[in-house]
């Protein structure tokens, strides 16, 4: 029997789910209670030091509390510390990098043969048939090529890889037939998706000495966006049972007009985009290697709002990046006032070994970082509240994942007594709070 504790992002939650399915297929049984577990898996996150500290204190605690279990450390922290995990925690039995998660069954078997295991390479992802809930994560892309200067992800999850459109569509069709109504497409950069590179096929005549020019079967015209993200969205929308498509996370460098257009015309795409801006200061954005300016970012969201007036835009912001001055910080606040985000995840900069920014002095004090974080959070709440209040008296489309609890197209939490899980309704908003709509 195995138990899994997950830290970090949606990708990690999706990876944990994959482990659950693979282990269940391999004859192991999932338990909600670590007391009953023979194997405890910690699926870890390394994006900030805080996540790692929490992980370490939890592992220590669990090892004392559940001495009967064998322990697996999987995910980003496993990759980051490798062999050294065994030194830090001699009771850990296996260290499994994020790309080795598909091998979890063999790894667990190996542990029971009394071996310590370290798996830091890349395993093949299997096609898993799973029973879907109302809303399901579907990974379309893994890894990251962007190397934002503060971010450890490219070093731990490796280069960008895309799943084949056919595989993604098969998985979604399969989920749809078992009850799924919404898919959330996952990737570190979903919108850079390049699933199928279309190489025009040249067909030469079989006879005739090649005098006739070859015929081009896939014309290049209109071929530029073939196999890209907008086309994937279009194909998923053709699956009748799927009523809504979400995706995250998107990078502002990859929001071309044809994606905005697809979001505007495709009725199944949710009116929400999570578009991390990280900072409002052009100087800091450059140091972060984000490849856009605050002006460019605002231009993108203006286009989105022009085409999709009721779209909700959420973001991530880091405060206290090395050399961030009060003026840089003011630029971030001023961008927030213009962008009017529906939600903001704000973080204090956390230096990460291996990254380019690690070489810079972490010169903004904890005190200043904390003050800036509080200011961002306060301003964010104001706009979160406003963006929901704008919907009072208007209709929203809601998919209920549980009885009485759903999300609007904008990804706002919606509460409605009497609604049943799986219902997809258009309803009028009666009142709102900072966190939800009441309908
Ligand atoms: N320090 C603080 N926040 C970070 N993020 C990524 N790396 C760091 C870091 N070193 C934040 C970014 C990213 C989100 C997932 O985590 O805002 O978008
Ligand atoms: Fe990290 Fe930047 Fe890649 Fe996001 S886009 S995972 S912040 S390197």
Summarize the structure.
Helices cover 33% and strands 21% of the residues.
User: Hey, roughly how much beta strand do the residues contain?
Assistant: 15-25%
Estimate the mean pLDDT confidence: 92
N-end to C-end Cα span: 42 Å
Task: Outline the biggest β-sheet.
Answer: 6 strands, mixed
Structural class: alpha/beta
Strand order of the largest sheet: 19-16-17-18-21-20
**Portion in helices:** 25-40%
Q: Figure out the total of helices.
A: 13
Report the uncertain regions.
197-211, 213-224
- Total number of beta strands: 21
Which ligands accompany this protein?
A: 5'-deoxyadenosine, iron/sulfur cluster
Overall geometry comes to globular
Give Rg in angstroms. Answer: 24 Å
Structure overview:
This protein has 13 helices and 21 strands. With 439 residues, the protein is an alpha/beta fold. The strands form 6 sheets. Strands 19-16-17-18-21-20 form a 6-stranded mixed beta sheet. Bound molecules: 5'-deoxyadenosine and iron/sulfur cluster.
Describe the protein's topology.
Blueprint (H helix, E strand, L loop, with lengths): L1 E5 L3 H16 L13 E6 L4 H17 L4 E6 H6 L2 H5 L3 E5 L7 H9 L4 E3 L15 E5 L1 E2 L10 H5 L3 E2 L2 H13 L4 E5 L15 E2 L11 E2 L12 H9 L6 E5 L8 H9 L6 E3 L7 H6 L6 H14 L4 E8 L6 H14 L3 E6 L17 H24 L5 E8 L2 E4 L4 E3 L8 E5 L2 E2 L3 E3 L1
Parallel strand pairs: 1-2, 2-3, 3-4, 4-5, 6-9, 9-12, 13-14, 14-15, 18-21
Antiparallel strand pairs: 7-8, 10-11, 16-17, 16-19, 17-18, 20-21
This protein binds 5'-deoxyadenosine and iron/sulfur cluster.
The site of 5'-deoxyadenosine has 12 residues, from β14.
């Amino acid at each position: 029997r195995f138990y899994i504790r997950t830290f970090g992002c949606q990708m990690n939650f999706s990876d944990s789910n994959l482990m659950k399915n693979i282990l269940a297929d391999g004859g192991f049984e999932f338990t909600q209670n670590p007391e009953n577990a023979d194997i405890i898996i910690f699926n870890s996150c390394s994006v900030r030091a805080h996540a790692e500290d929490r992980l370490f204190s939890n592992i220590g605690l669990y090892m004392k509390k559940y001495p009967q279990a064998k322990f697996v450390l999987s995910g980003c922290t496993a990759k980051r510390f490798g062999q050294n995990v065994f030194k830090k925690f001699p009771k850990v039995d296996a260290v499994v990098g994020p790309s080795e998660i598909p091998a979890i069954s063999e790894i667990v078997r190996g542990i029971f043969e009394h071996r310590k295991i370290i798996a830091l390479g890349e395993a093949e992802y299997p096609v898993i048939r799973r029973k879907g809930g109302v809303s399901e994560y579907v990974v379309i892309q893994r890894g990251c090529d962007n190397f934002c200067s503060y971010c450890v992800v490219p070093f731990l999850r490796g280069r960008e890889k895309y799943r084949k459109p056919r595989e993604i569509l098969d998985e979604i069709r399969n989920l749809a037939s078992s009850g799924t109504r919404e898919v959330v497409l996952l990737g570190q950069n979903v919108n850079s998706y390049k699933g199928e590179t279309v190489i025009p096929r040249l067909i030469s005549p079989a006879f005739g000495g090649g005098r006739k020019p070859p015929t081009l079967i896939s014309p290049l015209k209109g071929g530029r966006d073939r196999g890209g993200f907008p086309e994937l969205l279009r194909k998923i929308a053709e699956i009748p049972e799927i009523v809504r498509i979400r995706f995250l996370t998107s990078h502002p460098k990859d929001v071309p007009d044809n994606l905005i257009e697809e979001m505007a015309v495709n009725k199944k795409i949710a009116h929400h985009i999570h578009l991390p801006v990280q900072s409002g200061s052009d100087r800091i954005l450059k140091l972060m290697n984000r490849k856009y300016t605050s002006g460019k970012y605002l231009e993108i969201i203006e286009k989105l709002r022009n085409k999709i007036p009721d779209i909700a835009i959420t973001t991530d912001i880091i405060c206290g990046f090395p050399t961030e001055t009060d003026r840089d910080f003011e630029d971030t606040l001023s961008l927030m006032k213009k962008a009017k985000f529906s939600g903001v995840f704000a973080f204090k900069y956390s230096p990460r070994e291996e990254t380019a920014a690690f070489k810079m002095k972490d010169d903004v004090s904890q005190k200043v970082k904390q003050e800036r974080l509080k200011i961002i959070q306060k301003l964010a709440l104001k706009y979160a509240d406003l963006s929901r209040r704008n919907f009072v008296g208007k209709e929203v489309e809601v998919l209920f994942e549980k009885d009485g609890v759903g999300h609007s197209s904008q990804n706002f939490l919606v509460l409605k007594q009497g609604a049943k899980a799986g219902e997809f309704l258009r309803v009028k908003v009666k009142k709102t709070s900072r966190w939800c709509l009441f309908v």
